[in-house]
Design a protein that fits this description.
The complex is a heterodimer of chains A (253) and B (346). With 253 residues, chain A is α/β, with parallel strands linked by helices. Chain A folds into 2 domains: 154 residues, NADH:ubiquinone oxidoreductase-like, 20kDa subunit (Rossmann fold, 3-Layer(aba) Sandwich); 85 residues, no CATH class. Helices cover 38% and strands 9% of the residues of chain A. In chain A, strands 2-1-3-4-5 form a 5-stranded parallel beta sheet, sandwiched between helices. Chain A is globular and about 60 Å long. Chain B folds into 2 domains: 199 residues, no CATH class; 132 residues, no CATH class. Chain B is built from 12 helices and 12 strands. In chain B, the strands form 2 sheets. An 8-stranded mixed beta sheet of chain B has the order 3-2-6-7-8-9-1-10, with helices on both faces. A 4-stranded antiparallel beta sheet of chain B has the order 5-4-12-11, with no helix packed on it. In chain B, helix 8 packs across helix 10. The radius of gyration of chain B is 22 Å and the shape is globular. Classes of the chains: A alpha/beta (253), B alpha+beta (346). At the A-B interface, helix 2, helix 6, helix 7 and helix 9 of A face strand 11 of B.
């Protein structure tokens, strides 16, 4: 690809820890390959230059106030393609835990007696709740290889391959002992795969950072978790770590 | 039939690991479960096990496999790939041997699948008669608790010795390799093996209430009972676990993965499963089995009827893996088949 043919890309962050941009900054030797196919014009975490002339915008973080909303809409206007990266931007992420809590308490906890100085929405939203999103790279943090897969797919004009089946698929392919057979509980049966079941491979459980699949059987999973001895409250907590925004949308439908 | 002392078998396995150019794999423990994995030494081998998480099929049809490598620097260049690691696989239970016999037919059917067949051809299968039994297994009902063929060598535990049945010239040649201390079995030992094989039939907690030969007919008969399938599929996660752990599921998905250089890439295949929502989705977005219940029914139809009609085998070997690994516990074939059998006159 000729240097002048490379699409111009820019990175923007909203409410989040910037861990996804850090994954990209940490691509190491592959970052040079990446720069062969895209031209980065804005990336606050790694460079001082900035330009508003870009083709592809990568959005990290959730949208939590009107200022965020306006800025995101402006980016959407500027960009031909908009890609949400990381759980906060794709599903509201752990910011959306506040969506199911008492908002005044949340404000008190975060801002204390200065809480009136800050305008904040009661609910954190993913990018797609505010603007049209073309592609999503899920995860907390994102998987570097999946990010590269999405970038090269959009440079080539191909649809990226993002799984829409539960983590159980990858967990079984990796021949893990199921968390439920270790007397633990996980939300892998309703969570989107694509992470290669990395957490379970290391002996822990799936917390659901890639969000629920498009058509999860969460009712069955709630029943199963209760049958395995979790209280209703514990079951709700399992689902609220990453799924609060998604659950509310599904309930409204 | 031959007989070998247990310590001599261990020495033989260690010698194979050290000297044979093939990779030696066998049953090993993994937490509270068992898996087929590469052996570092004979003492890792666990021949008294109930069932492995995945069947040994993974050695002939890996979970993920490159079929083609391509590059586009000057025109398009493509190369077919088959990464064959010749293996000696130790500790295969009879129901898994039966499933390999079935898969051999499937992959040899036109068009032949060279990637499977070459790996299979270069493998040696050493079976072992069951000593532990998964509470979910119903191999006794499926006629797969013991097996007459399909192995290169077959072991039966006789306390301080193993009886070794030779199943092929590949098996005999392996025994001739190295310094194996082996002798002919005596009549009492042969009788003991026969007695053990007879007793194995009664060890299973789960069973079919009828002969599996009725399955193709029964499933055709009950195909249209939509209430039944919907009711039983209600708690299905569509997670594909029952497919992936099944020794007779062989469906796969093929995808091209380009390297970030955009100048090279790989065409990969990965195991797929008919319980997954996107399985029957085609270009344009049409999905031929959109509902959970349709997918759920399809798996049972496939095991008990469709593959029988194509290859002449009931494609369930009674290992119980699907039932034991299904988190909402809705995958047990004996439960579904027995319910259908008792409902058939209604």
């Amino acid at each position: 690809m000729k240097p002048e043919e490379r699409p111009k890309v820019a990175f923007f962050d909203f409410a989040g820890c910037e861990g996804d941009q850090l994954q990209i900054a940490n691509l190491e030797e592959k970052i040079l390959d990446l720069l062969n196919i895209v031209e980065v014009v804005s990336f606050r975490e790694v460079m001082t230059e900035h330009s508003d002339d870009y083709d592809v915008a990568f959005i990290e973080g959730s949208i939590t106030d009107t200022h965020n909303e306006e800025r995101l809409k402006e980016i959407r206007e500027n960009a031909e393609v908009l890609v949400a990266i990381g759980a906060c931007a794709t599903i509201g992420g752990i910011n959306s835990i506040r969506n199911v809590q008492n908002f005044e308490k949340v404000q008190d906890r975060v801002y204390g007696d200065k809480r009136d100085h800050y305008e904040a929405w009661e609910k954190a939203k993913p990018a797609k709740a505010v603007v049209e999103v073309d592609y999503e790279v899920h995860g907390c943090p994102i998987d570097r290889d999946e990010f590269l897969h999405v970038v090269q797919s959009l440079v080539m004009g191909r649809e990226p391959h993002i799984p829409d089946h539960p983590v159980c698929v990858e967990c079984k392919l990796n021949e893990n002992v199921c968390a439920f057979e270790r007397d633990e509980f996980c939300v892998g049966p309703v969570t989107r795969a694509g992470c290669d079941s990395c957490c379970v491979n290391e002996g822990t459980i799936c917390w659901g950072c890639r969000g629920m699949i498009d058509n999860p059987n969460e009712e069955a999973h709630e029943e199963v978790l209760e049958e395995y001895g979790l209280t209703v409250e514990e079951v709700i907590k399992k689902f609220d770590l990453y799924f609060a925004w998604q659950k509310e949308v599904r309930e409204d439908e | 039939m031959k007989v070998i002392k247990k310590e001599d078998l261990d020495d033989f396995v260690d010698e194979l690991i050290a000297k044979d150019e093939r990779e030696v794999v066998g049953v090993k423990s993994k937490d509270s479960k068992y898996v087929f994995d590469k052996l570092g030494k004979a003492e890792e081998l666990e021949l008294e096990y109930d069932v492995t998480i995945l069947p040994p099929k993974k050695y002939f049809m890996p979970q993920r496999e490159t079929l083609v490598e391509y590059e586009t620097r000057e025109g398009i260049e493509m190369k077919a790939v088959n990464e064959v690691v010749p293996r000696i696989i130790i500790g295969i239970h009879p129901y898994d041997l039966e499933s390999i016999k079935q898969m051999d037919k499937v992959f040899a059917d036109s068009p032949e699948d060279g990637n499977y067949l070459e790996k299979r051809e270069k493998s040696i299968l050493i079976g072992v008669n069951m000593q532990q039994f998964s509470e979910w297994s119903f191999a006794g009902s499926m006629g797969t608790a013991t097996i007459e063929d399909g192995y290169d060598l077959m072991l039966t535990d006789l306390g301080d010795r193993y009886a070794v049945e030779i199943g092929s010239s590949k098996g005999r040649e392996l025994l001739e390799e190295g310094s194996l201390k082996i002798r002919d079995a005596e009549p009492e030992e042969i009788e003991e093996v026969e007695k053990i094989e007879e007793n194995i039939q009664d060890e299973f907690e789960k069973e079919l209430d009828f002969s599996p030969r009725n399955l193709p007919w029964l499933l055709a008969e009950e195909y249209g009972d939509e209430d039944f399938w919907e009711e039983n599929a209600e708690d299905c996660y569509s997670c594909g676990t029952c497919n992936i752990v099944c020794p007779t599921c062989y469906c796969f998905d093929v995808q091209d993965f380009n390297d970030i250089s955009l100048e090279e890439g790989e065409r990969m295949r990965q195991w797929d499963g008919c319980m997954l929502e996107a399985f029957a989705e085609v270009a344009g977005g049409e999905n031929f089995r959109e509902e959970r219940a349709e997918r759920y029914r399809h798996r049972f139809m496939r095991k008990g009827r469709y593959l029988y009609n194509r290859f002449g085998d009931i494609a369930c070997v009674g290992c119980g893996r699907c039932a034991s690994q299904c988190v909402p516990d809705i995958a047990d074939p004996t439960n579904i088949f027995n319910k259908l059998w008792s409902d058939k006159d209604e």
